[in-house]
Structure formats: C-alpha cells, structure tokens
Amino acid sequence: MNYRDSFELNDLKFFASVFDKSLLKHVQNLKSPDKRIKKAMIYFIKTGGKRIRPFLIHKTGTFMGIDRKILNDFSLAVECIHLHSLIHDDLPSMDNDDYRRGKLTVHKKFDEAIAVLAGDMFQVLSVKTLTDSKNLSPIQKINSIQMLSKANGLEGLIAGQSLDIYMKKNSTLKNIESMHLLKTGALFNLCFSLLANIKNLNIKQKKELKIIGETVGKIFQVTDDMLDRWGDEKTVGKKINKDFLKANIAYKFNKKECMAYLHNIQNKNFNALKKFFYKNNKGLVYISSLVDFIVRRVK
Fold this sequence. Notes:
Blueprint: H1 9-28, H2 35-46, H3 52-63, H4 68-89, E1 99-100, E2 103-104, H5 106-109, H6 112-131, H7 138-152, H8 157-166, H9 173-183, H10 185-198, H11 203-230, H12 233-236, H13 249-252, H14 255-276, H15 281-296
Antiparallel strand pairs: 1-2
C-alpha cells in the first residue's frame, strides 16, 4: 500500500466519511423495542466530527502492520466511548452546551433523559463491539476490554470529567495536567495501548507508545482550551469563552505562553515517535505531521 509522505486534511476527511458509514451501520444494526435512543444516537453521529481517534488507530496500526479488520473494531469501540463522553459533557449538569459542531446537542434536539440513555448506550456498544469481534482472539478481547474499561473509568475519563467540573480556577499547572491526563489523555492513550496489545512489542516500544498517546492527549486538550479562549465561535461550532471560570491552561497563560507550552509537548511527542518509528521513516513523517495538524486545528 502506498502512503502520502505526510498528512493532509483530505486524508482525514475521506477517512471520516468512510468511517461514519461504518459507525452508522453499527448502530442501525442494533435491535430494540424502543426507537428513540437509536434515533438520538444516529442523529449525533450525523452531526459529524473529526474522528481523529479512529484515524490515529487506523494510520498508526497500518504502519505497524495490524489487520484492517482489527483496526476497525478498535476504532468503533474507542469512538463510541468518545461519543458517550461528548453527549454527557453537553448536559445541563455538566458543561450545559446547546450546540456542538453548530448543531443542537442531543438533550436539546430530544430531551435530557434520552441524551443520558444515548450516552449510556454508546458506552455499552463500545464493550459490545469488542466482545462481538470476530477478528480478536479470546485473550485479546479480554485485554482490550480491560484497557477500555480502565481508560473510561475511575482511572481515566470519568474521573477526569469529575475533576474538570469541580477543580478550582486557581489550581496548579500540575493538577490541571493530571486532570488532562485522565479526561483526554486516557482515551488517546487507549488508541495506542490497544495496538500494543496486538503486536509483540518490547518494554521500550510500549513505553514510547505510551508517551505518544499521553502527549497527543495533552496537545489535543490544550488546543481545545486555546480554542475556547481565542477561537472563532462559528468555526469552532459551539459557544466559546465558557471556561474562563474553570481550571483551564488558556486562562492561566497568555497565547504566547500557551504556544510555547504546546511546542514543548510536541517536541516530547516527536522524540517518542522517532524512537518508536526508527525503522519506519514514512510512519514517523506521517504521524508527526498529523500531530502538527492537531496543534494547528481551528475547530
């Protein structure tokens, strides 16, 4: 298979259009006597999304030589967790957002109860995707489900969401970074740890892959923070300047300081990528240019 030398936005757009068809089919195939929850799930998928996590899984996994069917199972499972977190994050009791990607959030389009249940069902579907997989061995399924549960639970995303809600604005940088590592980093880290579970990697390779996942998560979250303060509301697709009372790096630093902070994390990410892809220059160039896009994104 031929690869571009570096990432281009059209790669991600094309992937997202193909992946969304697979994701829609995945939900449409669910059987239920109640159509409301499925309708809400399908609506939310159709509101779009960058699909960066599935894209990272597919591209990194392909460079690692992992079967595409396995990568699709992992991508669906991880994106279902992500969708659950977004629906719940928008709820009045959390971030209280009326719009996401320029369209009504699920609780505004339907109601709060349906939004909660649709988010819950995406969580269930993430595990179901792995348990029903015909491409993973029994031990790979067990390990993958354990990893997913940890990343989504009290050692990962759910704990991070709680910390984000209740953390004080004047929290230390170290505490904010710890929250980011759970809220955003855990799911990005999962993208790479799932791949490590398939390949027979040594301890050093697993360590580098962990650093890659953690730094990508930090980069993504800090960029989100900066978009909340300095982004264009129409481009971002949701209300901005809503985090000024929260523990947010963009409200702790000025823009120049934030860019310097991001640059340091990106350097750490690139060094880990160099070590991991030391025999695969195409993989290094492509994934590092994708990370650069995440730094420069405007929504």
